[in-house]
Fold this protein.
Amino acid sequence: MPKEKKNGRPSIWSEALEDEICRRIAAGRSVLSVSKDDDMPSDFTIWKWMNERESFSLKYARAIEARAMAHADEISDLTRRVVLGEVPPDVARVALDGLKWTASRLLPKVYGDRQSVDVAVTHTHQLHLDALKRLNESAKALPVGDVIEGEVISVSE
């Protein structure tokens, strides 16, 4: 009696396969697209490997950044082709919108619309903390709308 065939492709992990997956993603493709290639594991297997292997997860994160840059390069190339008359502007607009959206989601700090500033403050001067506490107490005692008179504090290092 012949053996029953298993469904799906074999999922034999190797660092070389991991690198090739990331190379294809960095070139602008998605995990789903890469997983459809005959020589690649399924998307489920790729996601599973990323969850199990931190090194793969880090490589994937760098590949995603490169993918965003590849989309930005593609935007430049497509714009040039529109100017040369090789691509109709209305067709290019749809492609450009998709590429811009994807790049902004993959690498929002570089290609995103909104800019944000992360500030971390550590306070080591007890003098400042004491002055802030006094001002806070003064503010609690005043009726709404009154002005708090501040103190002049000199700090020497």
Notes: The mean pLDDT is 81.
